[in-house]
Amino acid sequence: MPTMSSVMEDPTLERHFKGHKDAVTCADFNPNRKQLASVSVDKSLMIWNLAPKARAFRYVGHQDVVTGVQFSPSGNLVATSSKDRTVRLWTPSMKGESTVFKAHTATVRSVAFSHDGQRLVTASDDKSVKVWSVHRQCFIYSLNQHTNWVRCARFSPDGRLIASCGDDRTVRLWDTSTKHCINCFTDYRESATFVGFNSSGTCIASSGADSTLKIWDLRTNKLIQHYQVHSAGINSFSFHPSNNYLISGSSDSTVKILDLLEGRLIYTLHGHKGAVITVAFSRAGDLFASGGADGQVLMWRTNFDTKSYQDILRQHSRRSSPDPPPHVTDIHPRGPHLHRPQPTAIQISPTVADTQSTDPHVIELGQSVHSTTLLYGRTHTTPTQAAANSHHSNANTHHSNGLPAHREASSRVGGWMGDESTSRARTTVWSQTGDGGGGRGRREEEERGQTHPLEVLSGHPSSLDSTLRHIVQQLDILTQTVSVLEERLTLTEDKLKECLLNQSQLLKDVLSSEERQRTESEETDGSPVHFT
């Protein structure tokens, strides 16, 4: 049976958005598929409308670096977190209104909605994770066992768990009903930078400043995958909604795409100059965004997920396993396995400008002069006020400690200027055709470094060394595949043995029941008759 990767198409750069004046720290797609939000060191929130030639909106209100952004599940609210210690809830419209929470006593590193949209979870340098009510706009409870800055916190899909991670090198799992920490993973040598659940809530992944990405199965509490494919710290990652793929962004300037079913790196994307600080799939998985130290937001079309999410669900529904999909056997290898970079990964270096429209016209909205607000107070600013002070957010480029904003922010991700990988198997360069940026682009291929493995047989120059390396890699892949097949066969045998034992027990129960009934019947029918 052909694997999904054998019929894959390369991801393509769809658009780029320029409007931020400094590094992009976080991005998220609106569930309605019409907007993309991004936030930046420039203290602003940008809402990009995905329709060609549509206007973009800049919302100003935070007084320091904006660190996190997320749309609510309904798409009618946007939450942002900031180094100014507040969280804001914005209505993504022309009004530019926001509700401000004095959330923490130090920098707020991340903000996220629960999947029902009723709660917010925030993570902060004050070492706490806090949960808030969205509609009542009030604090609910705090989780306080981290011993250093907390970088990221997320709800599980069912809302029963919260995962958090931070500079104390731990990933913690919390029960939202008891407020207790029910698990603590301590496998990191450096800060744990980002954490997230897959869409079914059966697994969590976390990334580290040590350039590793790890996936745990929550039903067994075991590490099931361990990737080390980046050459610098990982700042962000995102699961594809099918759970088959994961994208990661790193300070090595690359976006990498992992195939979780096959347990390997499949693409390396070079689109940013400097660190990639944020990556995010759209809710449907057909698009993903990346943002970085270069101030750009790039939007990519996925393409490589050739099977639709509905097909995946239908495939899972036919499984014999009683566990909810995806079953633990869908993510392998089951034992911890270190995945190293594969030099045969396709590397894409987009040089094309925006393929659909020129840079959008930006409308400035939101509060330009910060007024003192009460706890959970609501602040409103008219577009007129915003226009009068549109450049206020960039007037002061230094923080209280005297460091430039971009310098201080760069220390947060452990250095944004990473070296590009020197081992390139194939580079696909996109050159623009047509006028006004409206062309779809023309593919050209440049051979750099190693020859592509498939071209060794067609007379292209290649050293014996690289050919042998390629053969060894292919053998490694075959060994892994055989290992996986053996594991699956063992699992199947175990399940079959369990079924047979159950059936045997059932049969014994039925036979003993029938025997008991027959004995009782004989005792009733065959009892002697006494004559008086």
TrEMBL record:
Comp. bias intervals (Low complexity): 386-401
This protein's UniProt keywords: Coiled coil, Cytoplasm, Cytoskeleton, Repeat, WD repeat
GO biological process: cilium assembly; epithelial cilium movement involved in determination of left/right asymmetry; heart development; multicellular organismal-level homeostasis; optokinetic behavior; renal system process; retina layer formation
Annotated WD repeat ranges: 17-50, 59-90, 101-134, 143-184, 185-226, 227-268, 269-300
One Gene Ontology term, aspect cellular component: extracellular region
Region (Disordered): 314-342, 384-462, 511-532
PANTHER family, alphabetized: POC1 CENTRIOLAR PROTEIN HOMOLOG B (PTHR44019:SF1), WD REPEAT-CONTAINING PROTEIN 55 (PTHR44019)
Family note: Belongs to the WD repeat POC1 family.
Protein name: POC1 centriolar protein homolog B
Species whose genome carries this gene: Sander lucioperca (Pike-perch)
Gene name for this UniProt entry: poc1b
